[in-house]
Specification:
Helix content: 25-40%
Radius of gyration: 15 Å
Oligomer: single chain
Low-confidence stretches: 132-136
Distance between the termini: 51 Å
Shape: globular
Largest sheet: 8 strands, mixed
Strand order of the largest sheet: 5-4-3-6-7-10-9-8
Structural class: alpha/beta
Number of helices: 6
């Protein structure tokens, strides 16, 4: 049976384009109010950046970043069915420069490799791991923090369950802002100089 769930890009050059959403049994789509908050907060940072969406799902955040003139957008997704939706979404939006890249695999393995390929670029990481209350995902935030401690990026945004208290510092990153939206919170980190 074909999944008919969709979401819409609401700004930039892809405005009004629809993306297919993977099954809600395997992913949790970012709420519109949360997405809008991220892009309002990062408005001055997106242009010309490399935007990497960890735990990519439909690729909505990476696609919205490229829609708002990020140089390149990556989305990493492990679940095969979700990745198929992601790849289809990006193939409908991509231009000849292949500005959107869908990657099937483990976020914890692929993120350092993508960053290594874009070492000279301004990079923004957007992490939306499955909330740790889901089966098989306890400890996901600690695992994410451990990976981030070893990485170089300019900005990191983590979407997490509001009951989780985010770390003030993660390696070279310092928390500079949090915004709560009911059960979801966005925590913003910047690279300490």
């Amino acid at each position: 049976m074909k999944n008919n769930l969709t979401t819409t890009i609401t700004s930039g050059k892809f405005k009004s384009k629809k993306l297919s959403l993977p099954s809600l049994s395997t992913t949790r789509s970012t709420k519109s109010i949360v997405k809008e908050s991220v892009f309002n907060s990062l408005q001055g940072e997106i242009y010309g950046s490399v935007f990497i969406e960890l735990f990519g799902g439909s690729g909505l955040m990476a696609a919205t970043a490229v829609s708002n003139y990020a140089k390149k957008g990556y989305a990493i997704e492990l679940d095969r069915a979700a990745f198929n939706s992601l790849r289809e979404n990006f193939s409908r939006l991509n231009d000849v420069n292949e500005t959107l890249v869908a990657l099937h695999g483990d976020t914890f393995e692929l993120t350092p490799k993508i960053l290594a390929q874009n070492i000279e670029q301004k990079t923004i990481l957007y992490a939306d791991p499955p909330f740790d209350i889901r089966d098989g995902f306890s400890g996901i935030y600690e695992k994410l923090y451990k990976m981030l401690e070893k990485l170089e990026a300019n900005i990191v945004v983590i979407e997490h369950i509001s009951s989780h208290k985010p770390s003030q510092n993660i390696g070279k990153f310092a928390l500079y802002k949090s915004r709560k939206f009911g059960n979801t919170t966005l925590s913003y980190y910047t690279k300490c100089i």
